[in-house]
Prior knowledge:
By secondary structure, the chain is of the alpha/beta class. Helices cover 33% and strands 23% of the residues. The strands form five sheets. A six-stranded parallel β-sheet has the order 3-2-4-5-1-6. A five-stranded antiparallel β-sheet has the order 14-13-12-11-17. Strand 15 and strand 16 (337-343) form a beta hairpin.
Amino acid sequence: MEKSALNSCQLAALELLSRNDNVFVTGIAGSGKSFLIRHFLRNFDQDDCPVLASTGAAAVLVGGRTFHSFFGLGIMQGGLEATIERATSNKRVVRRLEKTKKIVIDEVSMLSGLTLRAAEEIAREARGSDLPWGGMQVIAVGDFAQLPPVSQSGIRDWAFLDPAWERSHLSYAMLKTSMRTQDEEFLSILNSVRRGHVDEKVKAYLDARVASEATQNEFEGTRLFPHRETVERFNLSRLEAVQSPLHEFVTEYFGEPKFVEDLKKSGPLPEVLRLKKGAWVMLRQNDPMQRWVNGTLGRIESIDADRKKLRVSLMESGYTVEIERCTFNLLDAEGKEVASSFNFPVNLAYATTIHKSQGMTLDRVLVDLRNLWEPGQAYVAMSRVKTGAGLSLTGWTRSSIKMDAAVANFYQRLN
């Protein structure tokens, strides 16, 4: 991959990364944050620069480790001081941090401030240095205008509000060019929704995309729901309606039972993958030959159960591709593979949750923007598609489109 593949914003960010600065790479949805990081990491292996994900599910998809396991945080039982003491008393954690020169924190927006503070203090103590993060280069990646960290109390503990954020001395790399959409009108609407701003232009745009009941019934694409249970019921009901024989492919798991159970919870594959010819599926990996990305939709043209192959017609490109089974790995804190799953890298695509869609590029979505409760939820849902033509709504309400005030202030200062 040559530098010419990067746009001017990405090239400026790459310059910061190459100077070994601590950097926060941020920008609008679809601005190529992940693409930039993959480009930067092409000369490093996981031992030189581990990718740390905020959740187990994200770690499996990016081939990385979880932030919590890497820093020995566990569930932070007993609070901050007890967590730091446990981690710094763990020789494996200390040894791991002593030899690590740089880390990438993926989706940093989904880590709480307290979590970030614990990790930064552990790094300084383990490495015996008062420098930020004990002298490790930290590359934080994410967009705080998207989904917030999980909160049990209802109070959003944004990472950028914690003293550890300022202590990290992060340079800011803002990616402002959308790589996902060149639909200028749609991009303007997305930017307004990202800010939680609804004017007459936004209202007219959203109203025009509310689909009739007949159109909703005939919709071919992915429906986005806020709740997982709704997704599972909808996918199975749509699969049952497909008039062709059912094929079941049991996902094969390898590794210690404890880690296999973790992978079953966090991996992208169901324990039993149920498919039919004619069913809509979503590809859950980035193709090395760049024919599809995570989230690409297609219809199953044929199933060769004996040879374990699927032929899938991709929705947007129209290409028919042959899909083989592949492996998804779960890594421990040391970057060692501790469990793996083996099956076709597809899910039923009739529906997914808004939370799981973050990071995906989808061809067409139908989403209900009513009664959403999280800031950034509407923005994440809408920004999955490449053009406004790919967006359909069952309805929307003004109260569902919001940006957290602290996030708005943060990006205003940043800009």
